[in-house]
Design a protein that fits this description.
Helix content: 40-55%
Largest sheet: 4 strands, parallel
Order of helices and strands: EHEEHHEHEHEHHHHH
Radius of gyration: 18 Å
Strand order of the largest sheet: 3-1-4-5
Number of strands: 6
Shape: elongated
């Protein structure tokens, strides 16, 4: 799609740190929290500028961004099925930078750590194991709704903000005809 149509605008909705680790050449980094904050502005700026290809790590956040942008008035947007995981697995080219953990991997580490710590703490503090039940309920809710509160919180940490979180520059690239990576 990208090779066949030079007007395709690749918008990566992962965190700046994830984007820095690996991204598609020419992609614009516009983190999901910024899409949530500016859906109508993004839709207006991108209107008439060709197809917008939304990408994240596995497809979930891009699907959320797609819904928000379509609700904001954007009509020509698609989600890259399987996200960067599928892109890299297919052998497609990527721009690599400093390696960082994906947001999904961070969620697994934090959720597993909380569960393990609460079960161990239950040996000295009876009832602490119920914290793991809360985490489990949160993970079930995340699976059912395809949202993740823990992931949204982790995305706000300085580790995940990286160097490239210039939202105004990203939006300027969406507007500009000769688009470049932001």
């Amino acid at each position: 799609m990208i090779a066949a149509n030079p007007d395709v605008l690749v918008v990566d909705v992962r965190t700046p740190a994830e984007f820095e680790t690996a991204h598609i050449s020419g992609a614009i980094n516009l983190p999901l929290d910024q899409v949530d904050a500016h859906p109508r502005r993004i839709a207006d700026d991108a209107g008439g500028g060709g197809t917008m290809l939304l990408i994240c790590q596995s497809g979930g956040r891009a699907a959320q961004a797609h819904k928000k942008l379509c609700d904001g008035g954007l009509r020509d947007a698609v989600v890259l099925t399987g996200g960067m995981n599928a892109w890299i697995a297919s052998g497609a080219p990527v721009v690599r930078g400093r390696q960082r953990w994906s947001l999904e991997r961070q969620v697994r580490l934090v959720a597993g750590g909380i569960v393990l710590a609460s079960v161990v703490a239950d040996l000295w503090l009876p009832g602490a194991r119920f914290v793991s039940a809360v985490v489990g309920a949160g993970l079930v809710f995340a699976g059912l709704t395809d949202t993740c509160a823990m992931g949204m919180l982790l995305a706000r940490l300085p580790y995940n903000r990286g160097e490239g979180a210039d939202i105004d520059a990203a939006l300027a690239c969406i507007r500009r005809p000769g688009r470049g990576a932001a």
